[in-house]
């Protein structure tokens, strides 16, 4: 019925000594997943084009001089892949250590886990006379919907991709500057309300470190009342237009505290518009028996 | 983008005129009538490559890119302002804040050759005179750096007028092999009039293209492949394989690109060739287009080379006029046009995929390989990219054939090599030597050392290359010998350091160079370059490194070599680590 | 059976998109993501719209036709396709009927004639015709710009003719895609919330269908079609309807010529409003029944524009005395003496529906959960659901059906002609961050919200001496409102535009025309004649 058949040709490769067979075009990262090998990722996401900039998912491929990013490199017939060699472990440890030495990762539990795993020691950059250079940015709070705290930004490009080519095509933000001075920024760093931003919040949805977050979450965190362990996530459908976007309502104390969308659903691919992302506020209980119109 | 948001700032007439002159009516949105307006995704993509030229126009007009000016460019090309700002802030020659001091900006080189010739003093002097000075990475004029006179490389970025360099319009004096009969690549330097097609033809110009057309495209590819010519930019990839791969691609537009973004500190050979024998580059690129079946020729030249840019443009104009370029280039039946694009101050754009991104109107961020340029190059289309030196060799190969070409050099490194001699040598400059000449002979060719000190180290291949010590003087200059002895020829830099020079100062500068020039895309390089630089600064201040810091040097190097995206990260620790390993750095155990 | 023929994913792989009377970029932003993927994949898009909307700006060409000239435009495209011999003759012979009549009928719609009617250059009409007909896969997308006219059904039919002419229907990647304005307008229709249908688009007047429902419900059912909203309002006017029970609608704000509908609602003997908000309509009510929020406080299903039935789930507790809609209705039934309903759960209600509607029979809660929703028709548990409709057109035996007929549609133009007194055209639409009458979207502070403003062409504004931002008096034959002007180069001369999200500030539906479509009951929101005047200082 659908004249878009997915490839049925497969390739065989070896990962950590295991024989693995995957459909042609599958990334090494996905091939690892199919062999139950866990791979750390940061800039990769199900619903975004791989940019392979973070290099935390690198693996060793026999015959290749440098390590290769498993998220972006397709598995090839006969490839021999090592995911736990000394070189791989060293690179992963160092990449995480580098990140942790420059930005605040305390809202990125997944990265913290991997840093423990690989023995990353971010303190060794600071124990000398010259303090290690850090991102050093103050939070930008410019409206009531979301905030940007670039002291947590790892420049994974996800927000830029979600704002741009991979979904929203609004291009309100881009990478500006170069090297360690690179920042995610609007033109001339104007505030979001003065930029092209349409508040779809798709940047929040993909941010892995809390550098972009709901104002509701930020406020609760400021009050030390953000409790993920007490939160429920309920999947439902947006109440606005007829497209039928799936929403994940994150609730704490019987209140919606943020909204996401599943990345693997064909309607949204994890992306929403301003109404779906922020338009739920009318639901919250108010003092009157009916909600105020 | 299509539902582009443009703020209220507007460009002034001067900015608009500058942009209009550059874009020449090439707008994305075409208002055919009040009820019919054309635009669209393909039109937008098709115009994006004009962004860099448009930004150059703004920068040149006012000395900075104002919000209003940026808006005008964005509206015309339908580029989102945030993206255009991201592009503008990537390049060193663009300012996005109104400069405190109006007028021309004098860029003074602070990299190794100029550093040891007293760049810091020169900068202080100029500033004292009220000159608007900008400290610059290597400007590719290392042969001008002179410890005795205090001269260093300078590039003046014009505002409201043209850019200029010191040697504008004066005959080139720093070429010391003039008249040498054995020269292949440099035989016309100083002999031919670089502004005249007739003069070029009088010195054998365009005979190779005629011969190539007679041979046919396939035979040219075969000759280039059999000659053993390999890329002279540093990676030494076989040129014939590259050309054949592009020639084999059918059904899509194809490109040949001359990578004239010569920015490796210590390198100036391509500049000398482009300034003094520009038609040779145009002819060789035309042969590349003919051989690979590409209709589009591009020259991406670094923004700090205004004289070379002007000479190449003049050469293109004359060649077009003479029918040597165009819809039937030189009567070959093959359509071939060449367009020049100026870089804007970013070393990384010499990396081929970063160059493509820059030419396409994006930040000069390298792309992952594979896929390779031969299938997914410029605009994701098949592309052969070579630097001028590599192309010049083809002019030689075509008339004398692969065997004739191989009559010089070694089996694995046939032909000759251009070397850039600088530092403490008596006659710094560009030299063409046969592969197999030893390093010691090369230094002698350049008049030996100058000053009172003894040779301490030679930087081979530039900042991305490596240091060698006196024990390498017997090393033949070949790809294979360099590889075997753990060094590189890179882009042909041979920079001599005597023991009067504090090498740690040089290492600090090299680490600063990489820190400044890292594109910032991948984590190992973005953070690694900063941490390496911090370590060198600690060394400079303390005179030694603790064992923990010493360990860090190795750890940083390994992750950068293993996990960076491109050659920049892979080589950014080479110079420092080679110096340490050779025991050239006091206070740091090798 | 009313529904879009195609899945959202298909537009990502199509070759030509005709975006007609739709500003999906703002009104259906996530659907537009799929369109953008299609454009990035190389599709060409033509936007046919009186305004160069934010969606139209993505198009390869925008064709700015006069409001209400869609039939002429479609007929001209059809004529050009035939004249250029680009119609799909095999498909027409096999799957369509009435081609010769159609051909003869559209013959007068030459490019030049149609340029005069629509204002769009003939060459552009020709280009669209050729691009659409020559494409391997092509889709027509539309929204209320097509339907909110007095002849909205004719508009739709004239677009369907183009698909029939070219075979761009019934195949993956080609199709006709009406985008639904509200999250469950499709589901409401599917469930029988139409005056002439039972659930699953089964006809009330069909005795077999009626018998099935009578058996299932255990009671006799009214054999006559009911009235749609416009007819109800008319019946109120005649005193034929004296009581109304209004669930989740805000006709006091949302209806065209709103002043009139408000008076009618006020004149009822009894008005019961069941809503989550104290809306303008609720404020007129004798009884207000506060209900829970369907998508966040209650379990159930909704159906999207691609006919995808999806689960909604309760995430938070309804406030105060709010109760679920089905419970309120059940309680009312009990008070009216019906005991047999019991207290069914949403899932039990759904399973009853499945037993009565073949379109939904295969959609168990388990499958809806596991498969991310299912697209009807899904007649059995082992049926995968239907990504696109009308595949039968390509079957050898047409699935046992009759060939699909061409429709004959004639250009009429808007009911309300421009006059010296009312010389400007007013059309209305949505903006990205607001929704309908603003009762939901008013709940959050949008940094990009500007309020309802009248977009005017710079030339028109200059003639009237009106500056950007100036407040003006806007009048139609039905009433006047005061509002601010936004001078907008994207608006063609003679046209004005506004949103309708802030009725408390600008009661725009006082101006809109309540002339309505004979078949759909939809009023001509898209075309009123107005006059704009400077306010006296």
Secondary-structure map:
The complex is a heterotrimer of chains A (293), B (590) and C (537).
Chain A lengths: L9 E6 L2 E6 L4 H7 L23 E4 L6 E2 L10 E3 L3 H17 L6 H10 L21 E2 L4 E3 L9 H6 L10 E3 L6 E3 L16 H5 L5 E3 H8 L9 E6 L8 E7 L2 E6 L13 H5 L15
Parallel strand pairs in A: 1-5
Antiparallel strand pairs in A: 1-2, 3-4, 3-5, 6-7, 7-10, 8-9, 11-12, 12-13
Helix pairs in contact in A: 2-3
Chain B lengths: L12 H11 L6 E4 L2 E3 L2 H7 L3 H12 L4 H11 L3 H8 L16 E5 L2 H4 L3 H10 L4 E4 L17 E4 L6 E2 L31 H6 L4 H9 L1 H11 L11 H10 L6 E6 L8 H8 L1 H15 L3 E6 L4 H16 L15 E6 L9 H8 L13 H4 L6 E4 L1 H19 L9 E8 L5 E6 L4 H7 L9 E6 L5 E3 L10 H6 L8 E6 L4 H15 L5 H20 L4 H17 L3 H5 L2 H8 L9
Helix pairs in contact in B: 1-3, 3-4, 9-13, 9-17, 10-11, 10-13, 10-17, 12-13, 12-14, 13-14, 13-17, 20-21, 21-22
Chain C lengths: L15 E5 L3 H4 L1 H12 L3 E5 L12 E3 L6 H14 L5 H7 E2 L1 H8 L4 H8 L3 H13 L3 E5 L1 H4 L4 H15 L8 E4 L6 H6 L6 E2 L3 E2 L3 H11 L11 H9 L5 E5 L3 H4 L3 H9 L3 E6 L4 H4 L3 E4 L3 H4 L2 E4 L4 E5 L12 H11 L10 H11 L8 H6 L3 E2 L28 E2 L18 E6 L23 E4 L1 H7 L6 E6 L2 E9 L7 E5 L28 E7 L3
Parallel strand pairs in C: 1-2, 1-5, 2-3, 4-15, 5-6, 9-10, 10-11, 16-20, 17-19
Antiparallel strand pairs in C: 7-8, 12-13, 13-14, 16-21, 17-20, 18-19, 18-21
Helix pairs in contact in C: 3-6, 3-7, 3-9, 6-7
């Amino acid at each position: 019925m659908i004249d878009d058949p997915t490839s049925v040709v497969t390739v065989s490769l070896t990962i950590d000594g295991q024989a693995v067979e995957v459909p042609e075009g599958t990334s090494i990262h996905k091939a690892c997943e199919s062999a139950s090998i866990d791979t750390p990722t940061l800039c990769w996401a199900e619903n975004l084009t791989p940019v392979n900039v973070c290099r935390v998912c690198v693996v060793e491929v026999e015959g290749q001089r440098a390590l290769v990013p498993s998220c972006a490199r397709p598995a090839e017939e006969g490839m021999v892949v090592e995911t736990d060699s000394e070189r791989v472990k060293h690179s992963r440890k160092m990449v995480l250590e580098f990140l942790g030495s420059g930005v605040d990762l305390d809202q990125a539990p997944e990265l913290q886990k991997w840093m423990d795993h690989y023995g990353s020691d971010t303190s060794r950059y600071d124990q000398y006379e010259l303090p290690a250079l850090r991102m050093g940015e103050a939070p930008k709070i410019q409206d009531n919907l979301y905030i940007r705290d670039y002291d947590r930004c790892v420049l994974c490009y996800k927000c830029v991709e979600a704002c741009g080519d991979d979904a929203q095509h609004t291009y309100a933000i881009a990478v500006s500057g170069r090297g360690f001075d690179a920042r995610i920024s609007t033109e001339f760093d104007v505030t979001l309300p003065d930029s092209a931003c349409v508040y779809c919040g798709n940047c929040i949805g993909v941010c892995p470190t809390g550098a972009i977050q709901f104002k509701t979450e930020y406020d609760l965190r400021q009050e030390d009342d953000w409790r993920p362990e007490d939160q429920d996530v309920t999947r439902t459908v947006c109440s606005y237009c007829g497209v039928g976007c799936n929403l994940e309502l994150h609730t704490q104390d019987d209140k919606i505290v943020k909204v996401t969308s599943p990345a693997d659903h064909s309607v949204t691919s994890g992306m929403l518009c301003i109404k779906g992302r922020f338009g739920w506020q009318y639901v919250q209980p108010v003092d009157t028996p009916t909600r105020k119109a | 983008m299509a539902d582009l948001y443009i703020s209220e700032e507007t460009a002034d007439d001067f900015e608009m005129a500058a942009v209009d002159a550059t874009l020449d009516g090439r707008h994305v949105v075409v208002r055919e009538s009040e009820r019919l307006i054309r635009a669209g995704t393909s039109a937008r993509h098709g115009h994006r490559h004009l962004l860099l030229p448009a930004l150059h126009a703004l920068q040149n007009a006012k000395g900075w890119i104002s919000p209003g000016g940026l808006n005008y460019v964005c509206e015309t090309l339908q580029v989102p302002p945030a993206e255009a700002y991201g592009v503008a802030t990537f390049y060193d020659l663009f300012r996005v804040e109104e400069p405190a001091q109006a007028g021309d900006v004098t860029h003074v080189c602070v990299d190794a050759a100029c550093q040891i010739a007293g760049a810091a003093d020169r900068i202080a002097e100029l500033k004292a005179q009220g000159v608007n000075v900008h400290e610059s990475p290597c400007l590719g004029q290392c042969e001008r750096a002179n410890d005795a006179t205090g001269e260093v490389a300078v590039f003046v970025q014009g505002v409201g007028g043209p850019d200029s360099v010191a040697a504008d319009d004066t005959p080139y004096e720093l070429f010391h092999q003039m008249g040498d009969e054995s020269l292949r690549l440099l035989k016309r330097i100083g002999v031919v009039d670089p502004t005249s097609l007739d003069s070029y033809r009088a010195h054998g110009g365009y005979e190779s293209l005629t011969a190539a057309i007679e041979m046919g495209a396939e035979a040219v590819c075969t000759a280039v492949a059999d000659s053993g010519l390999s890329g002279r930019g540093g990676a030494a990839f076989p040129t014939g394989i590259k050309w054949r791969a592009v020639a084999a691609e059918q059904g899509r537009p194809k490109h040949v690109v001359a990578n004239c973004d010569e920015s490796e500190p210590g390198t100036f050979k391509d500049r000398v060739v482009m300034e003094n024998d520009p038609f040779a580059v145009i002819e060789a690129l035309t042969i590349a287009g003919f051989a690979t079946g590409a209709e589009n020729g591009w020259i991406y030249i670094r923004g700090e080379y205004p004289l070379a840019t002007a000479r190449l443009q003049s050469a293109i104009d004359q060649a077009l006029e003479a029918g040597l370029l165009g819809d039937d280039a030189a009567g070959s039946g093959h359509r071939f046009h060449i367009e020049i694009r100026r870089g804007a101050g970013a070393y990384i754009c010499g990396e081929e995929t970063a160059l493509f991104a820059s030419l396409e109107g994006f930040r000069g961020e390298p792309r992952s390989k594979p896929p390779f340029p031969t299938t997914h190059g410029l605009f994701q289309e098949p592309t052969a990219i070579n630097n001028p030196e590599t192309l010049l060799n083809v002019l030689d190969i075509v008339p004398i054939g692969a065997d004739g070409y191989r009559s010089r050099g070694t089996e694995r490194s046939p032909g000759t090599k251009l070397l850039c001699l600088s530092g403490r040598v008596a006659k710094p400059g560009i030299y063409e030597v046969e592969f197999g000449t030893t390093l010691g002979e090369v230094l002698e060719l350049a008049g030996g050392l100058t000053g009172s000190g003894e040779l301490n180290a030679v930087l081979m291949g530039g900042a991305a290359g490596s240091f060698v010590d006196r024990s390498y003087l017997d090393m033949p200059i070949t790809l294979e010998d360099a590889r075997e002895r753990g060094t590189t020829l890179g882009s042909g830099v041979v920079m001599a350091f005597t023991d009067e020079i504090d090498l740690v100062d040089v290492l600090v500068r090299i680490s600063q160079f990489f820190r400044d020039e890292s594109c910032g895309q991948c984590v190992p390089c973005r953070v690694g370059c900063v941490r390496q630089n911090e370590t060198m600064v600690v060394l400079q201040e303390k005179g030694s490194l603790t064992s923990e810091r010493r360990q860090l040097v190795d750890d940083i190097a390994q992750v950068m070599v293993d996990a960076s995206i491109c050659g920049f990260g892979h080589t950014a620790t080479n110079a420092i680590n080679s110096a340490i390993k050779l025991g050239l750095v006091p206070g740091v155990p090798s | 059976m009313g529904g879009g023929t195609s899945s959202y994913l298909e537009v990502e792989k199509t070759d030509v998109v005709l975006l007609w009377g739709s500003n999906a970029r703002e009104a259906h932003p996530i659907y537009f993501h799929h369109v953008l993927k299609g454009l990035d994949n190389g599709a060409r898009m033509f936007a046919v719209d009186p305004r160069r909307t934010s969606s139209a700006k993505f198009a390869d060409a925008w064709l700015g036709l006069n409001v209400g000239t869609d039939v002429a435009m479609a007929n001209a495209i059809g004529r050009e396709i035939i004249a250029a011999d680009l119609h799909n003759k095999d498909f027409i012979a096999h799957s369509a009927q009435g081609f010769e009549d159609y051909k003869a009928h559209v013959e007068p719609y030459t490019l030049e004639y149609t340029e005069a009617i629509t204002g769009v250059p003939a060459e552009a009409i020709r280009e669209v015709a050729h691009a659409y007909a020559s494409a391997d896969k092509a889709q027509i997308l539309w929204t209320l710009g097509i339907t909110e006219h007095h002849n909205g059904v004719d508009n739709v039919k004239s677009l369907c003719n183009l698909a029939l002419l070219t075979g761009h229907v019934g195949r993956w990647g080609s199709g006709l895609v009406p985008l639904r304005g509200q999250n469950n307008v499709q589901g409401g229709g599917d469930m029988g919330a139409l005056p002439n249908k039972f659930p699953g688009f089964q006809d009330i007047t069909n005795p077999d269908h009626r018998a099935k429902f009578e058996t299932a419900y255990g009671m006799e059912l009214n054999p006559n079609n009911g009235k749609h909203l416009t007819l109800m309002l008319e019946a109120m006017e005649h005193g034929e309807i004296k009581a109304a029970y209004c669930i989740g609608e805000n006709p006091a704000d949302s209806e065209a010529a709103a002043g009139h509908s408000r008076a009618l609602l006020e004149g009822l003997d009894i008005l019961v409003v069941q809503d989550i908000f104290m809306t303008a309509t609720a404020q007129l009510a004798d009884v207000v029944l506060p209900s829970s929020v369907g998508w966040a406080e209650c379990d159930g299903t909704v159906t999207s524009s691609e006919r995808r039935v999806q689960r909604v789930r309760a995430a938070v507790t309804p406030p105060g005395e709010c109760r679920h809609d089905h419970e309120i209705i059940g309680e009312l039934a009990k008070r009216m003496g019906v005991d047999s309903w019991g207290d069914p759960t949403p899932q039990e209600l759904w399973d009853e529906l499945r037993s009565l509607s073949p379109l939904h029979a295969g959609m168990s809660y388990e499958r809806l959960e596991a498969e991310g929703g299912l697209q009807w028709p899904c007649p059995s548990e082992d049926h995968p659901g239907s990504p696109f409709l009308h595949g039968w057109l390509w079957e050898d035996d047409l699935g046992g059906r009759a060939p699909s007929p061409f429709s004959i549609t004639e250009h009429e133009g808007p009911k309300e002609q421009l006059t010296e007194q009312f010389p400007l055209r007013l059309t209305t639409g949505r903006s990205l961050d607001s929704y309908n009458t603003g009762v939901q979207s008013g709940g959050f502070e949008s940094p990009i919200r500007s309020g309802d403003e009248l977009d005017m062409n710079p030339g028109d504004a200059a003639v009237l001496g009106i500056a950007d931002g100036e407040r003006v008096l806007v009048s139609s034959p039905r009433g006047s409102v005061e509002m601010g002007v936004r001078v907008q180069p994207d608006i063609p001369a003679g046209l004005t535009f506004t949103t309708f999200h802030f009725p408390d500030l600008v009661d725009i539906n006082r101006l809109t025309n309540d002339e309505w479509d004979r078949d759909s009951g939809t009023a001509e929101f898209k075309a009123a004649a107005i006059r704009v005047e400077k306010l006296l200082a």
